[in-house]
Amino acid sequence: MEPGLGGLDGSTGLEPPPKEKTAWESEKFQAVEEACKWRDLDKLRKLAESEGGFLADELRQQAWPILLGLGPDVPTPADSWNELPRHQDEDQVQLDVDRAFVYYPKDQTSTQLEIQKAQLSSLIISILRTYPYLHYFQGYHDISQVLLLVLPARLLPTALARLSILRIRDFMLPKLDPAIAQLRLIPDILRGADPKLYRHLSGTEPFFALSGTLTMYAHDITTLGEISRLFDVLLAREPVFSVYMFATIVISRRAELFEVEEDEPEMLHSILSKLPKPLDLDRLIAEAVSLMERHPPEGLRAWKGISSASVLKTARDVNACCMQTLEDGERWFGQQSREILWQRRMRAARGLVWKHRRPMGMAGLAVLVGLVAMLARRETGMGVTGWLAAILARWVR
């Protein structure tokens, strides 16, 4: 194994000795290796969905980079990021890294733990300094930790950069609006798949799924084996699959949820915000695949509200996503950032218009609405609220 980032081995170093493979495991090992050899994304996806996923880290070290679009020759990472300007979110990174490696790997000495934390901190900061437009979010360290414990060190910066910019970009924008928009798909999925459960949860906002979907479940699943197996399919499938995965988990708990009255949304939210234990991942993955086939995202009402620059749409085709460049991702990042600004200005403008609707009368209101639509699209130092305040001052004098 190659030396890891910061001098640490890329493996945990604490794994039990390999046991003899069964005939089924040997056959699947061979199938994964063959798919990796030919970089067969469709075959890798089917293998990731099937029982056990990629089975072992030695196979994941071959398969995950391919699924993330890494070429066969990845250059050795340089330390030049150390010389780049400090990123605004580095203090929060350190706070989160200090809380990392709580559940796995097991039986580390304090020295080993500190070395791994330093490695994780360097990995995250190298991404943020190299791509300073990205915004760190709490839970990003959980995702990064999984990659760090599985992949060879020389692949980590490139793998995490592509994951960040092309697969979880929606969560690294200035605001979490696109992440919330993703959650709005869950009620639509439930409406089609289980109308009775949908009605039962209709008073509960889908924010219960934020931690799971935001962190690719890495914050909520506490064993390395389980989260690595889930990453197999999350990397092999398109990003929207993560949303279907959570909807499947909700449906799997319908009996438990019906024990709580629908007029107790706080209790329902409390139940749904924690993943059930144990998780039958193979069964849940198979059901999520079926759920997505029966109720594809294009048929959901909330899908229309998803930005065309969202990863849910730009990475809808995993094969195409593997061919995308980081420059493509930066361009979509800019588009989404502008959309967020415009949407927030429009919400502020609508609120201001509604507040002053009586003094203006209907005719004045119609004119002002037109001005709002025009001005909200303009970049001005005053901002839309300042423009509206100036206009309203004229109307109400």
From TrEMBL:
A molecular function (GO) term: GTPase activator activity
SMART domains named in the record: TBC (SM00164)
Region (Disordered): 1-25
Top-level division of the source organism's lineage: Eukaryota
Keywords of the record: GTPase activation
GO cellular component: endoplasmic reticulum membrane
GO biological process: endoplasmic reticulum to Golgi vesicle-mediated transport
Gene3D superfamilies (alphabetical): 1.10.8.1310, Ypt/Rab-GAP domain of gyp1p, domain 3
All residue ranges annotated as the Rab-GAP TBC domain in the record: 54-238
PANTHER family: RE60063P (PTHR20913:SF7), TBC1 DOMAIN FAMILY MEMBER 20/GTPASE (PTHR20913)
Name of protein: Rab-GAP TBC domain-containing protein
